[in-house]
Amino acid sequence: MGGRAGRDGRAPRVSADAVSPLSLSRLLHDFPALAESLRGVDRAAPTEAPVLILGEPGSGRSTLARALHGASPRAAGPLAEVDPGAIPSTLFESEFFGYRPGAFSGAEVPSEGRVARAEGGTLVLDHVEELPLPSQPKLLRLVAERRYSPLGGAERAADVRFVAIGSEDLPRRVARETFRPDLFYRLEVLAFRVPPLRERRADLPAVLDHLLADLGERFGVRAPELSPR
Question: Which H helix or E strand runs over 4?
Fold first, then answer.
Protein backbone atom coordinates (compact mmCIF):
# COMPACT_ATOMS: atom_id res chain seq x y z
CA MET A 1 0.00 0.00 0.00
CA GLY A 2 3.03 2.23 0.27
CA GLY A 3 3.76 3.47 3.78
CA ARG A 4 5.88 6.39 2.67
CA ALA A 5 5.87 9.34 5.02
CA GLY A 6 5.11 12.87 3.89
CA ARG A 7 7.10 16.06 4.23
CA ASP A 8 6.27 16.39 7.95
CA GLY A 9 6.77 12.73 8.85
CA ARG A 10 3.09 11.80 8.75
CA ALA A 11 2.20 8.65 6.91
CA PRO A 12 -0.34 9.34 4.15
CA ARG A 13 -3.71 8.50 5.65
CA VAL A 14 -6.04 6.37 3.60
CA SER A 15 -8.69 3.87 4.42
CA ALA A 16 -8.43 1.20 1.79
CA ASP A 17 -10.21 -0.60 4.61
CA ALA A 18 -13.18 1.74 4.43
CA VAL A 19 -14.32 3.88 7.32
CA SER A 20 -17.87 3.09 8.40
CA PRO A 21 -20.57 5.60 7.43
CA LEU A 22 -22.84 7.15 10.05
CA SER A 23 -26.60 7.69 9.98
CA LEU A 24 -27.99 11.22 9.91
CA SER A 25 -30.80 10.32 12.30
CA ARG A 26 -28.30 9.10 14.88
CA LEU A 27 -26.23 12.26 14.54
CA LEU A 28 -29.28 14.52 14.82
CA HIS A 29 -30.05 12.75 18.09
CA ASP A 30 -26.47 12.93 19.38
CA PHE A 31 -25.57 16.43 18.17
CA PRO A 32 -28.59 18.76 18.32
CA ALA A 33 -26.32 21.80 17.93
CA LEU A 34 -25.32 20.50 14.49
CA ALA A 35 -28.90 20.29 13.26
CA GLU A 36 -28.48 23.06 10.68
CA SER A 37 -25.30 21.54 9.22
CA LEU A 38 -26.83 18.05 9.20
CA ARG A 39 -29.92 19.26 7.37
CA GLY A 40 -27.60 20.70 4.74
CA VAL A 41 -25.80 17.36 4.52
CA ASP A 42 -29.16 15.64 4.03
CA ARG A 43 -29.93 17.94 1.08
CA ALA A 44 -26.46 17.51 -0.42
CA ALA A 45 -26.23 13.73 -0.05
CA PRO A 46 -28.26 12.72 -3.16
CA THR A 47 -26.10 14.86 -5.47
CA GLU A 48 -22.71 14.11 -7.02
CA ALA A 49 -21.37 17.61 -6.40
CA PRO A 50 -18.12 18.10 -4.47
CA VAL A 51 -18.57 19.13 -0.84
CA LEU A 52 -16.30 21.30 1.32
CA ILE A 53 -16.55 20.98 5.11
CA LEU A 54 -14.79 23.72 7.08
CA GLY A 55 -14.15 23.88 10.80
CA GLU A 56 -11.62 23.43 13.56
CA PRO A 57 -9.89 20.08 14.14
CA GLY A 58 -11.93 17.95 16.52
CA SER A 59 -15.19 19.78 15.78
CA GLY A 60 -16.78 16.84 13.97
CA ARG A 61 -15.84 17.49 10.35
CA SER A 62 -15.04 13.83 9.63
CA THR A 63 -18.29 12.85 11.31
CA LEU A 64 -20.23 15.00 8.83
CA ALA A 65 -18.26 13.49 5.93
CA ARG A 66 -19.16 9.97 7.07
CA ALA A 67 -22.82 10.95 7.47
CA LEU A 68 -22.83 12.46 3.98
CA HIS A 69 -21.50 9.24 2.48
CA GLY A 70 -23.92 7.12 4.49
CA ALA A 71 -26.91 9.12 3.22
CA SER A 72 -25.76 9.15 -0.41
CA PRO A 73 -26.47 6.74 -3.29
CA ARG A 74 -22.80 5.71 -2.91
CA ALA A 75 -23.29 4.38 0.63
CA ALA A 76 -22.69 0.78 -0.47
CA GLY A 77 -19.32 1.78 -1.98
CA PRO A 78 -16.06 2.48 -0.14
CA LEU A 79 -15.52 5.52 2.04
CA ALA A 80 -11.81 6.29 1.70
CA GLU A 81 -9.91 9.03 3.51
CA VAL A 82 -6.56 10.47 2.54
CA ASP A 83 -4.49 13.36 3.87
CA PRO A 84 -3.17 14.87 0.62
CA GLY A 85 -0.96 17.33 2.47
CA ALA A 86 1.10 14.41 3.78
CA ILE A 87 1.94 13.28 0.24
CA PRO A 88 4.95 15.07 -1.31
CA SER A 89 4.14 16.71 -4.64
CA THR A 90 6.66 14.43 -6.37
CA LEU A 91 4.61 11.40 -5.30
CA PHE A 92 1.14 12.85 -5.82
CA GLU A 93 0.43 11.20 -9.18
CA SER A 94 1.75 7.76 -8.24
CA GLU A 95 -0.10 7.82 -4.89
CA PHE A 96 -3.39 9.23 -6.18
CA PHE A 97 -3.52 7.84 -9.71
CA GLY A 98 -1.42 4.67 -9.41
CA TYR A 99 1.03 3.36 -11.96
CA ARG A 100 1.71 0.57 -14.40
CA PRO A 101 4.82 -1.64 -14.61
CA GLY A 102 7.70 0.23 -16.20
CA ALA A 103 6.21 3.67 -15.54
CA PHE A 104 9.38 4.61 -13.66
CA SER A 105 12.48 2.95 -12.27
CA GLY A 106 11.47 0.32 -9.74
CA ALA A 107 7.84 0.08 -10.90
CA GLU A 108 7.80 -3.67 -11.47
CA VAL A 109 4.18 -4.42 -10.51
CA PRO A 110 1.05 -2.30 -11.01
CA SER A 111 -0.26 -0.23 -8.13
CA GLU A 112 -3.76 1.12 -7.71
CA GLY A 113 -3.94 4.72 -6.60
CA ARG A 114 -6.16 6.27 -3.97
CA VAL A 115 -8.79 7.20 -6.56
CA ALA A 116 -9.16 3.63 -7.83
CA ARG A 117 -9.49 2.31 -4.27
CA ALA A 118 -12.45 4.64 -3.74
CA GLU A 119 -14.15 3.51 -6.98
CA GLY A 120 -17.93 3.68 -6.67
CA GLY A 121 -17.74 5.49 -3.34
CA THR A 122 -16.54 8.67 -1.67
CA LEU A 123 -12.99 10.02 -1.41
CA VAL A 124 -12.49 12.30 1.59
CA LEU A 125 -9.60 14.77 1.30
CA ASP A 126 -8.62 15.60 4.88
CA HIS A 127 -6.56 18.71 5.73
CA VAL A 128 -6.96 19.85 2.12
CA GLU A 129 -5.54 23.28 2.99
CA GLU A 130 -2.12 21.65 3.40
CA LEU A 131 -1.99 20.35 -0.17
CA PRO A 132 1.31 21.56 -1.70
CA LEU A 133 0.93 24.15 -4.46
CA PRO A 134 2.58 21.94 -7.14
CA SER A 135 -0.04 19.23 -6.45
CA GLN A 136 -3.03 21.55 -6.64
CA PRO A 137 -3.36 21.69 -10.47
CA LYS A 138 -3.41 17.87 -10.55
CA LEU A 139 -6.19 17.70 -7.98
CA LEU A 140 -8.04 20.48 -9.81
CA ARG A 141 -8.11 18.51 -13.06
CA LEU A 142 -9.22 15.38 -11.23
CA VAL A 143 -12.13 17.17 -9.53
CA ALA A 144 -13.12 19.28 -12.55
CA GLU A 145 -12.93 16.59 -15.25
CA ARG A 146 -13.37 13.47 -13.11
CA ARG A 147 -10.71 11.79 -15.20
CA TYR A 148 -7.11 10.81 -14.53
CA SER A 149 -4.27 8.77 -15.97
CA PRO A 150 -2.24 6.23 -13.98
CA LEU A 151 1.47 6.72 -14.64
CA GLY A 152 2.26 4.70 -17.75
CA GLY A 153 -1.42 3.89 -18.30
CA ALA A 154 -4.44 5.05 -20.27
CA GLU A 155 -6.81 7.76 -19.14
CA ARG A 156 -9.83 6.57 -17.18
CA ALA A 157 -12.92 7.99 -15.49
CA ALA A 158 -12.91 8.78 -11.78
CA ASP A 159 -16.09 7.23 -10.40
CA VAL A 160 -15.85 8.89 -7.00
CA ARG A 161 -17.52 11.67 -5.07
CA PHE A 162 -15.14 14.22 -3.56
CA VAL A 163 -15.54 15.56 -0.03
CA ALA A 164 -12.86 17.98 1.17
CA ILE A 165 -12.23 18.80 4.82
CA GLY A 166 -10.39 22.01 5.63
CA SER A 167 -9.66 24.53 8.34
CA GLU A 168 -11.55 27.79 8.63
CA ASP A 169 -8.55 29.73 7.35
CA LEU A 170 -8.78 28.11 3.90
CA PRO A 171 -10.39 31.25 2.35
CA ARG A 172 -7.51 33.31 3.78
CA ARG A 173 -5.04 30.94 2.16
CA VAL A 174 -6.79 31.61 -1.14
CA ALA A 175 -6.38 35.35 -0.55
CA ARG A 176 -2.68 34.82 0.29
CA GLU A 177 -2.30 32.77 -2.91
CA THR A 178 -1.10 29.66 -1.09
CA PHE A 179 -4.22 27.81 -2.25
CA ARG A 180 -5.53 28.06 -5.81
CA PRO A 181 -8.85 29.94 -6.06
CA ASP A 182 -10.03 27.78 -8.97
CA LEU A 183 -9.51 24.63 -6.89
CA PHE A 184 -11.24 26.22 -3.92
CA TYR A 185 -14.30 27.10 -6.00
CA ARG A 186 -14.43 23.60 -7.49
CA LEU A 187 -14.42 22.07 -4.03
CA GLU A 188 -16.94 24.43 -2.44
CA VAL A 189 -19.86 23.71 -4.77
CA LEU A 190 -21.63 22.72 -1.55
CA ALA A 191 -20.01 24.05 1.60
CA PHE A 192 -20.69 23.57 5.31
CA ARG A 193 -19.19 25.07 8.44
CA VAL A 194 -18.98 22.98 11.58
CA PRO A 195 -19.18 25.20 14.70
CA PRO A 196 -16.30 24.72 17.15
CA LEU A 197 -16.90 22.68 20.29
CA ARG A 198 -16.59 25.75 22.52
CA GLU A 199 -19.89 26.86 20.97
CA ARG A 200 -21.43 23.40 21.52
CA ARG A 201 -20.48 22.31 25.03
CA ALA A 202 -23.56 20.11 25.32
CA ASP A 203 -22.23 18.03 22.41
CA LEU A 204 -18.91 17.24 24.11
CA PRO A 205 -19.83 13.82 25.63
CA ALA A 206 -21.26 12.61 22.32
CA VAL A 207 -18.21 13.92 20.44
CA LEU A 208 -15.91 11.96 22.75
CA ASP A 209 -18.03 8.82 22.37
CA HIS A 210 -17.85 9.07 18.57
CA LEU A 211 -14.11 9.76 18.69
CA LEU A 212 -13.42 6.74 20.89
CA ALA A 213 -15.61 4.52 18.70
CA ASP A 214 -13.78 5.75 15.60
CA LEU A 215 -10.37 5.05 17.15
CA GLY A 216 -11.52 1.60 18.24
CA GLU A 217 -12.68 0.82 14.70
CA ARG A 218 -9.45 2.06 13.13
CA PHE A 219 -7.23 0.05 15.47
CA GLY A 220 -9.46 -3.01 15.75
CA VAL A 221 -10.03 -2.78 19.49
CA ARG A 222 -13.07 -2.30 21.68
CA ALA A 223 -13.68 1.38 22.32
CA PRO A 224 -13.33 2.43 25.97
CA GLU A 225 -16.40 3.89 27.65
CA LEU A 226 -16.49 7.21 29.42
CA SER A 227 -17.32 7.07 33.11
CA PRO A 228 -19.86 9.62 34.38
CA ARG A 229 -18.42 12.07 36.87
Answer: none
Q: CB 156: neighbour CB atoms within 10 A?
A: 15
The CA distance from 13 to 60, in Å, is 18
String of b and e for 121-132 (b: at least 16 CB within 10 Å)?
bbbbbbbbbbbb
- Give the tens place of pLDDT for each residue, 26-35: 666 566 667 7
Residue 124's CATH number: 3.40.50.300
14 in a structural domain = no
| CA pair distance 60, 63, nearest whole angstrom | 5
Q: What are phi and psi of 175, to 5 degrees?
A: -65, -35
Is residue 133 situated within a structural domain? yes
Give domain status of residue 229, yes or no. Answer: no
pLDDT per position as a tens digit, 123-133: 999 999 999 99
